[in-house]
Amino acid sequence: MSNDPAAAESLTSPKPQRGTGCAILFGLAFGAFGLVFTVMFLVLPLWRVAQAQGWRETPCTILESRVDVHSDSDGSTYRVAVRYSYLAPPPTPGAAEGQEMTGDRYDFATGHSSGREAKDAAVRANPPGLRRTCWVDPAHPERSVLERGFPTGLWIGLVTLIFPLAGFAIAFGVWRASRRAAGPAGPLSAAATSTVAPGPAAAGESLVPVPGSQRWAGPVVLGIFGGAWNAFVWYGFLHERSTIMRLFLIPFLAVGLGLAVGFVWTLLRTFNPRLRLRLERANLRPGGGGELTWEVDGQAQRLRQLTLALELREEASYTRGTDTVRDQHVWHRSVLAEREGGLDLLAGRAAFTLPAELPPTFHAANNHLRWVVSVRSSIPWWPDVDDAWELTVLPAARTPPPPPADPPAETEYPPLPISLSARRGAEGTVLGAAAWDLPAPQGTLEVRLFWYTSGRGTRDVGVAAVKRLEGTAGRCGFAFALPDHPPTAAGTLVAIRWAVELVAEPLGKVARVELDP
User: Fold this and answer.
1) CA-closest candidate to residue 292, choices 395, 396, 391
2) Is the separation of the CB atoms in 421 and 408 below 8 Å?
3) Which of 143-157, 195-209, 244-258, 422-436 is least confident?
4) What are residue 307's phi and psi, to 5 degrees?
5) Which H or E element spans position 273?
6) Dihedral through CA 365, CA 370, CA 375, CA 380, nearest 10?
7) Which of 206, 232, 251, 367 is the most buried (most CB within 10 A)?
8) Which residues are 67's β-sheet partners?
């Protein structure tokens, strides 16, 4: 255990994140730079196309048309260079036409772009001397365009959206990660979050699917994302005349094909037979027994085998860069039932015993210990059944401890501003003593009993009990009733521990003692 305030502060106070400010500034600069290109190559052309919908159709004559080539060290790009004449439309219907004017805008694309074939085709379709129609702004007759629709190369402007989105996402992700990593200053118990103690389950209760395992989630996500991806990529592929650009788009078409196959596969999975599971014994606890019954809804004859297993899963969520990652690990697995086809698949019953040494159900914001019944079955030439249903396992039963009384104050304290000793007592209690000698009255002087998680996931903390202390100096014994939830546990991804802190605010002085399991 640790009784050194300086050591406790080093464990619980935020550490500066080196490079965080530079990464945020880089993300903001990258996003702003990309936003300029998005405005130039996407927003402005779309704005001009929208404005031109109210322009007047006017006869015109092509005077000159050619492909303008811009070459540099990176290669050549092209645009349609055209010049045409027209009579300015009358300001009001029935009025005389205005003076003859010339225009040089072919469409609302910005600058040069790759793909000469499309530009050559546009030039061939508009030879000098051709009489056709153009579109003229009646309020400003000097503004005109031959093609007022969406430019064929406008889809390339959509690509520029990647840069501002990526830049601002980097800045936000780094900022959020630094906030989460730093946490609040001061004692560890100040970062208290909430946890939900599992409630008792009634006998005959139907089990609910594990969050995130709903069969419709995959088709919905893949349908929306894959549909948008394929619509965007195929539009560019079909409207792009450049062979080089079409070759460039082939890998993106392959990704779109994979998304389409994934959508069909997950959609077929939604039509799989589904099990209905019921818990026949209430109030499951470690070391106790339970019993499940199941029935198959749907075409059970398609199933070739069926396996039901009881699993304890650890789930830990944490931030990696700009993403929130969730890891999962199976702490314990035991097979409840195996069937190899026939009528035995239609319905059944399975009894089980929960291992006494394993923890009960635990749910917090970022860390979970989840008991589930996994259901797996194979279907020939079809997506397999792979579902999970959650059980609620209560803490081990014990006799509630009596209300604790303060023990006598201890006197063997080292000469520190604050110091603390604590240990687990009999019948689920925590006993200890605190001493403090502070220069001035504090806003908060408390002893806190709390739990916290450690491991791969972002830390969750909960305060179970608080004892308020008074005065600038003194000694005091204390006793807390130790709750039966959450449990003390040490898994691969998630560990849950209990500790006691003596906290003096606003000085931020902390003495912290870990409680042995």
Assistant:
1) 391
2) no
3) 195-209
4) -130, 125
5) none
6) 40
7) 367
8) 80
Nearest-angstrom CA–CA distance, 489 and 347: 36
279 or 94: which leads in pLDDT: 279
Q: Which two tokens stand for residue 206?
A: 């139907």
Element (H, E) at 237: helix 217-239
Mean pLDDT of 296-315: 82
Q: Kindly indicate the confidence band of residue 237, based on its pLDDT and cuts at 50, 70 and 90.
A: confident
- Crossing angle for the helix pair 20-38 and 162-182, nearest 10 degrees? 160
Nearest-angstrom CA–CA distance, 491 and 313: 10
Q: Which amino acid is at 473?
A: A
Q: Which residues contact 142 (CB under 8 A, 6 or more apart)?
A: 101, 103
Report the C-alpha gap between 358 and 344 in whole angstroms.
31
CA 250 to chain centre: 29
Phi and psi at 101, nearest 5°, equal -135, 165
Say whether pLDDT at 309 is over 80: yes
List Cα–Cα distances, 331 to 105, 346, 355, in angstroms: 68, 30, 12
What the block records as the tokens of 344 is 């035995």
> How far is 264 from 266, CA to CA, in rounded Å?
6
How far CA 194 is from CA of 80, 280, 367, 459, 469, in Å, comes to 63, 31, 11, 12, 25
